[in-house]
Amino acid sequence: MDIDAKLYHRICVAETKDGKNFVNKIRSDMPQKQIDNRSIKLCLDIGCGPGNVTKIVADTLNCDMLVGVDIDPNMIAFAKQNYLAKNIAYVRQDFGAPWESLAPQVRQLEGRVDIVYSSHTLQWITRRDNVADNIRRLLAPGARAYLSYAGEPYYKDLVTNGFVRAIFWLLVWVGWLRSEPEHEQRAQYARAFEKGGLKIVSHERYDGSHK
Ligand SMILES: C[S@@+](CC[C@H](N)C(=O)[O-])C[C@H]1O[C@@H](n2cnc3c(N)ncnc32)[C@H](O)[C@@H]1O
């Protein structure tokens, strides 16, 4: 992805709303005592972008420390400039990379992360087995990952014109365009997580926003 961090930050209204709703849902799953006692020691935000949602996550869950990772150096620079806090650090990292090649700042979190959070990101990462493996290695025993990702548009849902559909079909067939039905995209992640040794507690579909 190559997005202008400043521009994305200006226009990411829907993503911010989704992030707020999602983290409120996560919070409502937790005992109030856990929040009040600041017992969430370490969180990770995969694909932190410009950092605005990361800050909301850190504040809402009252995390002792939150590490935001993003593949894009401009996003990391923007986040450091605008959403840095004593309990937030940002690291440039392609989270689809294999464990052995992750940055030392990320690998040193192995087995210690209480909550892995991600929103509007995982659909971009095609190396799903690596994502699942990295999450499994980072989570503390018994800890949870809360992952929200968008289904990529499927060409059959987008295109009604027969001729254009045929061109899309051809591009998919030769492998120049990746397009799968949403249920297949979800199944892929489910398979990757299960193969990576993660137990799926719940896999829900949201229409538009987390309620
Ligand atoms: C749509 S933005 C979402 C940002 C933020 N989570 C939010 O909800 O506003 C997707 C982010 O994922 C990041 N990203 C894409 N591929 C990634 C990868 N392989 N590893 C880490 N971050 C990635 C992009 O750089 C971008 O900042």
From TrEMBL:
<feature type="domain" description="Methyltransferase type 11">
    <location>
        <begin position="44"/>
        <end position="146"/>
    </location>
</feature>
<dbReference type="InterPro" id="IPR029063">
    <property type="entry name" value="SAM-dependent_MTases_sf"/>
</dbReference>
<dbReference type="InterPro" id="IPR013216">
    <property type="entry name" value="Methyltransf_11"/>
</dbReference>
<dbReference type="Pfam" id="PF08241">
    <property type="entry name" value="Methyltransf_11"/>
</dbReference>
<protein>
    <recommendedName>
        <fullName>Methyltransferase type 11 domain-containing protein</fullName>
    </recommendedName>
</protein>
<dbReference type="GO" id="GO:0008757">
    <property type="term" value="F:S-adenosylmethionine-dependent methyltransferase activity"/>
</dbReference>
